[in-house]
Amino acid sequence: MCVKNAAMFIANNNPGVEVVVMAINLPILSKQQLVDSLLEMLNCHRGIKLAILDHITGPSGILFPIEDMIPLCHQRGVMVMVDGAHAPGQVELNLEEIGADFYFGNLHKWCYSARGCSILYVNPKHSDKVNPLVTSKVECPRLRNRFLMQGSKDYTALCSSSAAVEFLQDIGGLSAVKNYNEPMLKWATDMLCKAWNTTTIPIHDSLKAPFMILIKLPDIENIPLTPDGSKAIALSVYQKHKVHIAATRVNGHFWLRLSAHVYNTKDDYYKLRDALMDIYLPQLS
């Protein structure tokens, strides 16, 4: 959403720039369904210069087949920017092999760093075109140096990034994290779906984010299907039970975005189950 808002801001303030958004309709039965949707967009809008692709969507937890989508764009002369906000720490990343023109992702969501840490990859052929919003104190043609010494910015959070990567390695690397998170997420999903008599988002297994999944919530009386409605659900659960949840809206329904990480235990999910049933029991039963 943040990237979309930035694109819309640019379009609204630059005549001749237009943003077109690819609709994602459920169910998604295969990777090819998403690839075909992208191809249709490219064929319908021949003037597209830049495609912005999610690697893993935040609201819906969909792992996009960017390995198939990026070449499709490049074949038509379209540059690709990948929003990898949820990817570092969930999937293996080889940014050169991915082949995007630009890739950025957060380290604080799944990679244990402090807030404000992220990565930016720029294909070398574009390095002379990319500049920070705040001009660096250092005058240098190197891309990295152009992002150094930006005014009085506090770099304390960024200093945690190397320690975060070391921590990931110390606990066994991404493979060890997957061995813990994926069974925990499956168990929690099955337990909650049974308790709430509900289902998960209808997408193919190959498109499911490793550590995130959406569980359908019922239509809740007096809560509108709006961003404020999502906030109201999350706030009610926190205020009464001190449980943080992510309530989202996809395809005309409320969903709970369930996550698992190495610090979660089964007790966390039992508490989540009971909290929602206490507040919304008639709708969940």
List the topology elements.
Blueprint: H1 2-12, H2 31-44, E1 50-54, H3 66-75, E2 79-83, H4 95-98, E3 102-106, E4 118-122, H5 143-146, H6 161-170, H7 173-196, E5 212-216, H8 227-241, E6 247-250, E7 253-259, H9 266-284
Parallel strand pairs: 1-2, 2-3
Antiparallel strand pairs: 3-4, 5-7, 6-7
Helix pairs in contact: 2-3, 7-9
List the keywords.
single chain; 285 residues; alpha/beta; four-stranded mixed sheet; three-stranded antiparallel sheet; 9 helices; globular
Structural write-up:
With 285 residues, this protein is α/β, with parallel strands linked by helices. Helices cover 39% and strands 13% of the residues. The chain contains nine helices and seven strands. The chain has helices at residues 2-12, 31-44, 66-75, 95-98, 143-146, 161-170, 173-196, 227-241, 266-284; strands at 50-54, 79-83, 102-106, 118-122, 212-216, 247-250, 253-259. Helix 4 (95-98) links the parallel strand 2 (79-83) and strand 3 (102-106). Helix 2 (31-44) packs parallel to helix 3 (66-75) and helix 7 (173-196) packs parallel to helix 9. The protein is globular. The model has no long low-confidence stretch (mean pLDDT 92).
What count of helical segments does DSSP give?
9
What are the low-pLDDT stretches, counting only 5+ consecutive residues below 50?
none
Global structural class = alpha/beta
- Evaluate the radius of gyration: 21 Å
Question: What proportion of the residues is helical, as a percent range?
Answer: 25-40%
Overall morphology: globular
Q: How much strand content do the residues show?
A: 5-15%
Strand order of the largest sheet: 1-2-3-4
How do the SSEs run, as a string of H and E? HHEHEHEEHHHEHEEH
Q: What's the main sheet like?
A: 4 strands, mixed
Q: What's the average pLDDT?
A: 92
